[in-house]
Every structure is written in structure tokens, then in C-alpha cells.
């Protein structure tokens, strides 16, 4: 029988438990994406709180493409020394740290009109109104290099791995989705072509960081619309191809936040007011995927009660569980569970931390 506190490994990364802190936009970096003391404290508290592995808030890989204010940067070598300090803080408190890297694209309202925003095709975001320009093949090659260099910087800074963000309506998930990707070249059309940019990013990263540095991906299970979006079948194709190429783990999420219907119907990644029977709401896809690949599947999305996760751990091939909002509310939640305090987390999935300005829980501000 598997246990949440089994000692496991992803590649050469030792895992003290099966819990991840999933990436959260903290809105606490400075205006260039550099660390602040308040942001360092967030990570210190998470590490002290017992979570085995922390995935950072998304870090932008191009200086001219900051999709949101206050997010971390990793676009040049000036970040390496300060991130060494962050990695040391986390390691001192016996947790792992993985950097999530991203190109945001048109799902943004930050500095819109002052910069060129790349997309798989020329299009307008339904939720923000931002326009994207179809990327040329030369620009795609530049972005692939940017991702690879960002990953190498994270390795030089002492991080335990990186995660490619290919979910939630950001650029790489736009390439996967026929809802947005209308290209007629080798980066559009069938799912092999729509996934090509991700496969090439993975291979470029692996070429720079080597075989012993963990590379993960956050992948949409589906877009959340019935017609025209990324399907489960296509997502599984991408996941299996990445596993064959050598990626080390896949964090399963879902919901394309750039699509208006997805937001209106509450089918995005961070859903509100979740009844217990609907927790772990990407579990069906994750269960299906975990049967078909031989690398770890990490489930995110509405993980709340231990008994729900325990059932999945021991009756499926899902190996790890990510939490985001519960650890905003209670950074020490995993330590509580270690000590036998297994009551449900305080988090009620209200989602108001997203509107707080610094990703803080309203329950802690009363």
C-alpha cells in the first residue's frame, strides 16, 4: 500500500513525500521580475511547512514578454545569483524547488499595446482583448532557445528541475489547441504538428541541461469546450510522445482560461466552491494517462481531502498530488498532516486569493 510519505525519486531528485506545491503567481517580484524579501519569505514558509517539492510561480523567459506584473523573471543571467539564494533557503528546509518557465501570450492585460505579443496565429483574446501576432518560424526558433537558456539558468542557480508551462491558455497550450492554432505549416494542423514546438523546446532544454536534470511539464488535459478545443485524446498523444522523448514527469491540469465559455462555465484550472465528490477534478484524465505512460503523473486541481487522494494513490497509477490554494491558506498544511492532524484544510476554494493583489488568503486576513 502506497503512502503519502513514501520516499521516492523523480530521476535523481529525492522526494520526501508525494506532495507538490503547484505553481502560483504570487505578484511579489519587482517590476523586472527580480526577487523581493517578501517573496523569499513565501518560499521559506512553504519549505518549513513540509511540502516535499515546490514549483515556483511562472517565470517569464523573454524580457519583452512579461504577461503579468510581479511575476518572476529568468530571461538573463542576472537572476542566477539571487536564485541561488532562493534555492539554498528551500534546500536548508529540506524541500526541493523546481522553476516553472513560461511564455504567456495574449492572456494578459499588462502593458498591452506597448509590446508585440506572439501567438500561434493572429488572433484576439476573448477574455482580455489583447491581440497576438502569428509567430514566424524564425521567432519560434528564438523562443525555443529562450526556454532552453532559461532552464540552464535555473540549473546553474541550484534548482532541482524545471517545469514547462503548457496549460491554462498560455502560449504553448494555444499551439496545442485547434481553437487558436490555425497555422498551415509544420506547427499547425494535426496534433503532431501542433505539439511540435513543445517537443522541440523539450529537446533543446535537454540538450543544454543534460540527462540528469529533471524536466517536467504542466499539460492541459483538455480545453474545457465541446468543439474546437484540445481534446483528451490529443493531450494523451502529446503526453505519450513527451514520455517517449524522455521527459521526467507530467503535471495534469486543464481548462483554457483564454476561452470565454470556459470561464463562464467554471471549467478553468482554479474552480470555486468544490463539493467533496467533485474534488481532484482532473482525476479521470490523470487516471487514464497514468495507465499509458511509464513516468510519474502529478495530479493538480481541487485536491483537498486526504481520503480522496489516498483512494487515488492506491487505486490508480497517479503517484503525486499538487496543491496551490490550500498552501496559500496554510503553508504548514503538510506538517499538520504528518503529525496526524488530518482534518480538511481551511481552504474553501473561494478563489478570492487570486484577487487579493499578493495571493494571500482572506481567511488569514480577518
From TrEMBL:
Superkingdom in the source lineage: Bacteria
Residue intervals of the NADH:flavin oxidoreductase/NADH oxidase N-terminal domain: 5-336
InterPro entries listed in its UniProt record: Aldolase_TIM, NADH_flavin_oxidoreductase, OxRdtase_FMN_N
Keyword terms: Flavoprotein, Oxidoreductase
SUPFAM superfamilies in alphabetical order: FMN-linked oxidoreductases
Name of the protein this chain belongs to: NADH:flavin oxidoreductase
Upper lineage: Bacteria, Bacillati, Bacillota, Clostridia, Peptostreptococcales
Amino acid at each position: 500500500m502506497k503512502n503519502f510519505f513514501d520516499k521516492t525519486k523523480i530521476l535523481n531528485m529525492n522526494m520526501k513525500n508525494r506532495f507538490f506545491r503547484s505553481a502560483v503567481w504570487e505578484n511579489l517580484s519587482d517590476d523586472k521580475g527580480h526577487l523581493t524579501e517578501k517573496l523569499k519569505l513565501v518560499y521559506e514558509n512553504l519549505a518549513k511547512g513540509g511540502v516535499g517539492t515546490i514549483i515556483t510561480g511562472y517565470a517569464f523567459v523573454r524580457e519583452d514578454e512579461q504577461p503579468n506584473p510581479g511575476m518572476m523573471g529568468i530571461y538573463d543571467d542576472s537572476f542566477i545569483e539571487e536564485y541561488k539564494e532562493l534555492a539554498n533557503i528551500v534546500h536548508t528546509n529540506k524541500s526541493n524547488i523546481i522553476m516553472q518557465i513560461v511564455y504567456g501570450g495574449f492572456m494578459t492585460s499588462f502593458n498591452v499595446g506597448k509590446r508585440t505579443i506572439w501567438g500561434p496565429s493572429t488572433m484576439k483574446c476573448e477574455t482580455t482583448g489583447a491581440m497576438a501576432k502569428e509567430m514566424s518560424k524564425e521567432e519560434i526558433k528564438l523562443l525555443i532557445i529562450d526556454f532552453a537558456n532559461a532552464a540552464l539558468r535555473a540549473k546553474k542557480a541550484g534548482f532541482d528541475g524545471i517545469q514547462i508551462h503548457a496549460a491554462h491558455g498560455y502560449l504553448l497550450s494555444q499551439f496545442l489547441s485547434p481553437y487558436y492554432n490555425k497555422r498551415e505549416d509544420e506547427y499547425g494542423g494535426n496534433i503532431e504538428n501542433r505539439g511540435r514546438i513543445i517537443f522541440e523546446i523539450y529537446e533543446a532544454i535537454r540538450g543544454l541541461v543534460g540527462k540528469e536534470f529533471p524536466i517536467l511539464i504542466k499539460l492541459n488535459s483538455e480545453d474545457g469546450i465541446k468543439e474546437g478545443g484540445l481534446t483528451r485524446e490529443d493531450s494523451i498523444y502529446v503526453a505519450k510522445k513527451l514520455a517517449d522523448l524522455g521527459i521526467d514527469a507530467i503535471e495534469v491540469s486543464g481548462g483554457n482560461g483564454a476561452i470565454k465559455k470556459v470561464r463562464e462555465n467554471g471549467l478553468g484550472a482554479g474552480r470555486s466552491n468544490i463539493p467533496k465528490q467533485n474534488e481532484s477534478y482532473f482525476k479521470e484524465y490523470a487516471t487514464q494517462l497514468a495507465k499509458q505512460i511509464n513516468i510519474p503523473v502529478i495530479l493538480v486541481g481541487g485536491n483537498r481531502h486526504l481520503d480522496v487522494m489516498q483512494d487515488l494513490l492506491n487505486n490508480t497509477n497517479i503517484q503525486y498530488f499538487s496543491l496551490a490554494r490550500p498552501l496559500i491558506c496554510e503553508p504548514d498544511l503538510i506538517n499538520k498532516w504528518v503529525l496526524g492532524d488530518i482534518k480538511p484544510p481551511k481552504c474553501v476554494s473561494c478563489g478570492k486569493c487570486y484577487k487579493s493583489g499578493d495571493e494571500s488568503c482572506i481567511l488569514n486576513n480577518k
